[in-house]
Amino acid sequence: MNTIIKLFFLTVIIPNIIIAQKSKNNYEYNIDLLHISNDEVRVSFAPPRNTLQHGKFIIPKLVPGFYQAMNFGQYVSNFAATDKNGKKILTERLDKNSWLVHDLKHVHKISYQVADGWDSLKNDTQEAKSPGSMFIKDSVFVINYNSLVGYFEEMKDIPYQINITKNKDFYASSALDYTQKNKNTDIVWAKDYRQLVDSPVLYCVPDTTWLKIGHTEVLVSFYNNKERHYSKTIAREIENILKNQQAYLGGTLPVNKYAFLIYYESSNEKGFLGDGLEHSHSTVCLYRSGSMKFLPNALNRVASHEFFHIVTPLNIHSGEIQHYDFLNPVMSKHLWLYEGMTEYATIHMPVKQKMISLEEFEKSLEEKIHGMKEFDNKFSLTELSKNSMERQDQYMNFYQKGALVGLCLDIRLRELSGGKMGTQDLMQLLMKKYGEGKYFNEDDLFDEITKITYPEIRTFFRDFVEGTQPIPLKEYLEKAGFNYDEATGKVTTFPNPDLKQLALRKAWINQ
């Protein structure tokens, strides 16, 4: 999701340490969380072995999940390169997020400092918080590697070894597997930069609980400066949601490990501030309020949406996502899929799994319809997606109109298949076709979906996703025995639906 605060993360496959160390064909980073000065972390690294005369070092301008320039390089200072004798090698700052390093083949070490992006969730201006990492030396670190770690443009897709110096009592909560070298040093490996920046870590005195959902291990890690034993309460709250999501996804979750990293800041002020953003195998949630009573409900909503991202974009995504350009990203045109279909599953799953009543489902539809009307719906979803950085004022419509497009697609599929196929089945088929390591071509997706469904679905995409025709909510809801009053935005069930309507409703929402 994308409202007040954004963060971003993923999981890791551990490479063969012996081979990587012997060849030095990896980035070897040192991050010091123990000796903090002026809210800055000291970072250094040894570049991979190379024969380059110079190289362009990059800290991301943007990472997947953000749709406005964040310029993470703005937090970096005192950038310097030295050879094995400690002699300085010339470097030039090219812009906010990149540096030119001369005579790179002789560089032994590069060092710099990184300032924290925030030290409190308090936000008087109501502007989005910086997603830079947050440091409170003796208490907690929310680490986003896109703020701390970079790469050379000439040496992409290379493994990373990260050595972290930290408080001996701190524990690394992450979807990655951290190993302890000694009481003050952890080591973590990532197969490439993409995996690393998609894998945030919460460092603090641990308050953790593990859940087992099918074959999937789920870590719940919580930090609050006052409450030290709350992760079990949170785990109990979200366990039922995760089990129902497992059933909704066919009985098996497509990940082996997942982590919820939750930072909660107590406040004497009224109100509630918070949000979360998915990563492939984890979610970071940031909250601030005067009472923890708001937390379970807030987490239930966020946990449901963000966890569904294990379907897309983790297992279903385009080449623009697979080969993401962190300095000059090209936006995908399929946010209707990544966010719209994910949000649709978030409102569809509870009624399909009988977690909520029919009346509650109707209310959730009314909220989406009302939300959609707040935006300019003359834009096609594909056009808006490609221009999402420039049209931030329309971005949140993917969670409104995008979800309602998913609803209409689901009903249309059920109608064409006699109730046998819906969006749940479609997403399963797409996961089997593509999966975590394979991507689809941007311009081919609608045709590929049509091939595995029905010819009429291509027309649906042409009219309502690529095109600007109003989505036929009234017509489609009537097919399932619902009345939608376009004047009032009210959704109600027909008092006397016919057998065809009842059959479609049963196939669609199991009611």
Set out the fold topology:
Blueprint: H1 17-23, E1 27-37, E2 40-46, E3 54-58, E4 76-82, E5 88-89, E6 91-95, E7 98-102, E8 109-115, E9 134-136, E10 140-143, H2 145-148, E11 151-152, E12 160-165, E13 171-173, E14 179-182, E15 185-190, H3 193-197, E16 201-204, E17 208-213, E18 216-223, H4 231-248, E19 257-266, E20 272-278, E21 282-289, H5 295-307, H6 319-322, H7 335-352, H8 358-372, H9 381-386, H10 401-416, H11 423-433, H12 445-452, H13 455-464, H14 473-479, E22 482-485, E23 490-493, H15 499-509
Parallel strand pairs: 1-12, 18-19, 19-21
Antiparallel strand pairs: 1-2, 2-8, 3-7, 3-11, 4-5, 4-8, 6-7, 9-10, 10-16, 12-15, 13-16, 14-15, 17-18, 20-21, 22-23
Helix pairs in contact: 4-5, 5-7, 7-8, 7-10, 10-14, 12-13
At a glance:
The chain has 511 residues and is α+β, with helices and mostly antiparallel strands. Helices cover 30% and strands 25% of the residues.
Q: Would you mind describing this structure in some detail?
A:
Residues 28-203 form the Peptidase M61 N-terminal domain. One of its GO terms (molecular function) is metallopeptidase activity. Keywords: Hydrolase, Metalloprotease, Protease. By secondary structure, the chain is an alpha+beta fold. It folds into three domains: 17-203, Immunoglobulin-like (Sandwich); 208-307, Neutral Protease, domain 2 (Orthogonal Bundle), CATH 1.10.390.10; 319-509, Orthogonal Bundle (Neutral Protease, domain 2). It has 15 helices and 23 strands. The strands form five sheets. The protein has an eight-stranded mixed beta sheet with strand order 5-4-8-2-1-12-15-14. It has a five-stranded mixed beta sheet with strand order 17-18-19-21-20, covered by helices on one side. Strand 17 (208-213) and strand 18 form a beta hairpin. Helix 7 (335-352) runs antiparallel to helix 8 (358-372) and helix 10 crosses helix 14 (473-479). It is globular. The protein starts with 16 loop residues before the first helix and ends with a helix. Mean pLDDT is 89; it is low at 1-23 and 125-130.
